[in-house]
Amino acid sequence: MPIGEQKPQINVMVLGAGVIGLTIAHVLTADANEGRFKVSVIARDLPEDINSQAFASPWAGANWSPMFHADERRFRWEKRTVEKLREMIPAGLAMDLPSRLYFDYPVTEEALYCDGIAKDLHLSNVSFAEHPEVQALVELNTVSINPHTYLPALKAEIEKRGVIFRRHRAASLDEICQMAGEGGVVVNATGLGARSLAGVQDTKVYPIRGQTILVHAPGAKHFIAKYEASPKPEVLYMIPRPAPSGEALVGGTFQPGNWDLSVDWNTAENILENAKKLIPELSTPSVYIKHHNVGLRPGRDGGPRVETEICVWPKKSTLAPGLPQPREKRTLVLHAYGFGGAGYQQSWGAAEEAVDLLKQALTT
Questions:
Q1: Domain-located, residue 289
Q2: How many Cβ atoms from other residues are within 10 Å of residue 320's Cβ?
Q3: Domains in the chain: how many in total?
Q4: What CATH code is carried by the domain that includes residue 347?
Q5: pTM of the entire structure?
Q6: Of 52, 80, 50, 53, which Cα lies nearest the Cα of 64?
Q7: Structural domain containing residue 314
Q8: Measured between alpha carbons, how far is residue 353 from residues 27, 134, 181, 299, 336 in Å?
Q9: pLDDT tens for each residue of 275-324
Q10: Is residue 282 part of a domain?
């Protein structure tokens, strides 16, 4: 190649427009990559489909909270993500979030696994007359965002960089590989869809049903959560949100294997009544319900899949073996899915690592 001649752009098809797909598209089109990638986002559901239950991102809590996993890789993802989100506080896309975490068992700072992520951490062994089950209180500062403003903002930013969005329901990985072509790249950020996408069909992927209540609660200033030693299908938390101010998400449920997208009204009543017992701000006259939510987190046995592989396409037909078969082609695929309830809080760290893996694969 003559000196000064620019390398041709690599065609990248990002399959999935949830927080992981959008964040990877953002990283691919960052100045540091010097226009190396021509990116398109292909998805059945786009960020403006904020009421669609067909993907998880609109329904997430979208804050940082301890996940209690001793996993250095995911810890790095979370630390980097919180750094990025804090950079967005002045623009109003994120908010500083004072937090109070109640535990019904003794806890140590090491168990929280948040060194370098949370600020102003204070752990105390306490007893409450009205909550005798509580054995520890952790106070700290983290960050939260509002998916309803954050996702469209991400989309708008990468559209300015030339990213093209296309609404399309993909039936197979082969189909998207054909769009990318040989020499191109596919990013598989399909979340729960990775279980049914032909050519992937990852049976390790499963739904984790989350039911929550969005409330107008202008007095809610803290992230409140209660952690129990014995995991239960119902969990208690409240997450204040930026833009519009005064909103908070109250939850919720954590139900692995449950595909039900309908609102369970008994569960909704339990969520609010249990939350009021621990969070007095929810009992003031100014509080009212704005929306009942149900979403399916994309869980995966063994944790998130973030890796590259070569997809060979089209698949040979076994239905008509006597007919001439098309020439096999190869396309690089970057998989990034299965983040469960941690998609937002791991998004930037995971996306940056994923793009690094992609660039390494392109040089080998």
A1: no
A2: 8
A3: 1
A4: 3.40.50.720
A5: 0.95
A6: 80
A7: 1-62+146-204+302-364
A8: 10, 38, 24, 20, 10
A9: 999 999 999 999 999 999 999 999 999 999 999 999 998 876 666 566 66
A10: no
